[in-house]
Amino acid sequence: MAQWACVSAANLSCQATIVNTQKQRNSPGCDAFSFKGSEFMAQSCRFSSPQAVYRRPRNGVCPLKVVCVDYPRPDLDSTANFLEAAYFSSTFRASPRPTKPLKVVIAGAGLAGLATAKYLADAGHQPILLEARDVLGGKVAAWKDSDGDWYETGLHIFFGAYPNIQNLFGELGINDRLQWKEHSMIFAMPNKPGEFSRFDFPEVLPAPINGIWAILKNNEMLTWPEKIKFAIGLLPAILGGQAYVEAQDGLSVKDWMRKQGIPDRVTTEVFIAMSKALNFINPDELSMQCILIALNRFLQEKHGSKMAFLDGSPPERLCAPIVDHIQSLGGEVRTNSRIQKIDLNNDGTVKSFVLNNGSVIEADAYVFATPVDILKLLLPENWKEMPYFKKLEKLVGVPVINVHIW
Ligand SMILES: Cc1cc2nc3c(=O)[nH]c(=O)nc-3n(C[C@H](O)[C@H](O)[C@H](O)COP(=O)(O)OP(=O)(O)OC[C@H]3O[C@@H](n4cnc5c(N)ncnc54)[C@H](O)[C@@H]3O)c2cc1C
Fold first, then answer.
1. Helix (H, G, I), strand (E, B), or coil: what is residue 277?
2. What is the number of structural domains in the chain?
């Protein structure tokens, strides 16, 4: 009997509303965007050394400075979350080779589909990864324009608190492709255009004190009473752990803030940006569980909220090594292969995937790793009433338009 699974890559995102910059201590009020000066950046970025600085005068007050700086990879590998992720993935490689490897067809070559195929190949199975488009990566896909510049679907941040993806980079031997930034979260201030507010996490302090310190030291966005209420409001999340986090799913971000006595101004100043960065929706629409999952990791791991960027286009710098790995173990990755229909056996199990070019692919097991809206469209009629699939009705995709400003 064919088996069925549905996977999705974690969505702990952080977009342009939070920018990572390095402040020039000797020039108050001026920010400098920092990049690691790797060989790749030196080619693609005209300001490749700390000496190369671009200044843009603004109202005669404050020049914008752009400086490239190296930050070392933080020590993530000894955290409990990282060790757990590394252990789980090592079990795929260490498990006895299957006597009859399973042929597994996976729909969608975003990071979830690519990772599924990689770990199935590690476990000795034969994945066939089918991607509808002519580019790999899904939401991390990118395209070259006529000038040779890359357009990404969206800016992607790789946080220290992402144990699975950090472990995957290590397994692929590409840790050096992540460019680590200064440990700060910097918010554009909604009521003061062009000004930024910093949350600086001191290197010398352990978690969660470094996070609490970052909140208490912020003077631009929050007043002292707001900071204290905010820090106290976060205590149950710090102390209560995962069980507390999951129990908050019924509350929106806005309602949770009010319940904790955190003033609405904190929600407006900080959590509109954070809600939109994490899920592209507002604090009155987003479950507090989503914010707390991220915040809890950020507060409990010293380097959890440290950010890294990939040193080039994700299809080339991240997807390609995963594909090489899959293929080296006998798996296949095919682009331009859109699944158009899920064909069923009489007993309701999957018989095959039918592709847009008419070809039919049969396998021992099938995985769907596409966006939820696609799965809902392709769901066979007689599955729709099954309790498992009925839950999909409540999952709705959020449309996002990304504007690249050069
Ligand atoms: C603008 C933006 C910024 C983001 N920033 C961050 C960030 O900073 N940090 C972070 O961690 N996350 C971020 N995310 C979220 C992250 O990109 C996603 O969670 C992750 O990439 C989703 O991967 P996935 O494999 O689950 O799905 P997808 O990437 O959506 O992959 C699904 C794949 O399925 C393919 N497909 C669709 N239909 C079919 C079909 N019928 N047959 C075959 N294939 C099909 C699609 O073409 C696609 O390639 C961001 C997302 C966006 C949109």
1. helix
2. 1
Are the CB atoms for 214 and 231 separated by under 8 Å? Answer: no
Host domain of residue 351: 96-146+311-394
Q: What is residue 168's predicted lDDT score, i.e. its pLDDT?
A: 98
pLDDT at 41: 33
Which residue, judged by its Cα, is nearest atom 12 of ligand 1? 13
Å from CA of 56 to ligand 1 middle: 35
Q: Do the domain assignments include residue 91?
A: no
State pLDDT tens for residues 322-361: 999 999 999 999 999 999 999 999 999 999 999 999 999 9
| Domain harbouring 140, CATH code | 3.50.50.60
Q: Tell me: pLDDT of 69 over 90.
A: no
Pocket of ligand 1 (CB under 6 A): 8-9, 11-15, 107-113, 130-133, 138-140, 153-154, 156-157, 338-339, 369-371, 374, 400, 402
212 in a domain, yes or no? no
pTM, to two decimals: 0.84
